[in-house]
Amino acid sequence: MAPHLLLIRHGESVDNVAGLYAGSRDSSLTNHGVLQARRLGSHLADNAATLGPIEHIFASNLQRAVKTAEAVAQAQLGVRNAHTMPQVVQLPMLREKDFGSEEGMRFGAREIARRGASSSATWVEPESRQSMKRRVDRFLDDFFLATATRAVSATPPGSIAIVSHGIILNVLLRCLLMRFGPGQMVRFAKAGTTPRASEWLASWSNTGYLVLEMRVLPLAPLAAPASLPNTPGLAASVAESDRGVQSVNAVSNPVDGSNASSNPDIQLSVKLVNCTDHLQGLKKTRSGIGSACFDEKQKTLDSFFSRAPPK
C-alpha cells in the first residue's frame, strides 16, 4: 500500500459560527468543532487499512488547528499496535492568511471598511498570495520533503497529515501539485479551461480532508554503452575508464539504497476531495451549546453517570 498525504481543515471555530474573518486570530473550537475533530480522528484510525496509519502530523500553531490535529494523533494509539501517538509539529508557516486590519470583520463588511479606512496610516493590508506561497514553499523545503522521503521509503510506509486552514490549504495544494503532480491540476479546472493562479482549487468543510497518494517514480534505466571498434589500445583505455565510472556509481547509487538521493522523485495523485464521511449523523446541539466555545474543564455527559469507585 502506498502512503498518503492528508490535507485537513480544522473543526468548527467560534469565529466560523460568528461569520468573522478569523485569519491569524486564535479562534477556539466550538463544542461542535471538538466533536467533529474526534469523529475525524476515529474515522482515520478505523480506515488505516486504506489510508495508512498516520505517523507524521504537521499543524498550524493556531489552537483550532492544533486541537484538531491532537484529536487525530490521539486516535492513532493502537493503530498497528502503536503505544505512542504521533507528535503534532506546530508551525507558524501553516497559519491562515493574515487579513491585516480586516481581521475579525464580518463576512461582507470588508469592502465597506476598506473604502473608509484604507487611507489611514494605521491600516494594515491583508497578506498577499505571494507571501503565503513563500511560507508554503519554506514548509515544503524545510519540513515536508524530508518527511515525505522517509514516508515513501519506510517498510511498511506511513502516511502524513497536515492540519491547517481553508485559504492556506489551497495555496499548499497548488504548490504541492506544481512540484509533484502537475498533471493533476486539470482535475480542478472547469470544463474546457485551466485553473488560474488566482482561483481556489478546492474547498474544505470543517474537518473535511483531501487525500493524495504518494509514490516514488521509478528511475529511468541506464542506456547501454555504444559498441566500439576492436582496437586493443582503445579497448584497454575504455575498460579502465569504465571501472572508474562503475566505482563512482557504486557509491552514489548503491544497490541496497542505503545512500540513495535525499530528494527522490515523489509523485502525488489526488484520490479524495473534501471527504466528510465521518460527519454523517452528527447533529449540532441546540440552544447555542454546540456553537459555544469548548471548555476543556467542562464535564462530559458520560462523567455524570460513571460508576462510583468501590469502597
Automatic annotation (TrEMBL):
One of its GO terms (biological process) is regulation of pentose-phosphate shunt. Substrate binds at R9, H10, G11, E12, S13, V14, D15, N16, R64. InterPro entries: His_Pase_superF_clade-1 (IPR013078), His_PPase_superfam (IPR029033), PG/BPGM_mutase_AS (IPR001345), Phosphoglycerate_Mutase (IPR051695). GO terms for cellular component: cytosol. This is Histidine phosphatase superfamily. GO terms for molecular function: fructose-2,6-bisphosphate 2-phosphatase activity. Keywords: Hydrolase. It comes from Coniella lustricola.
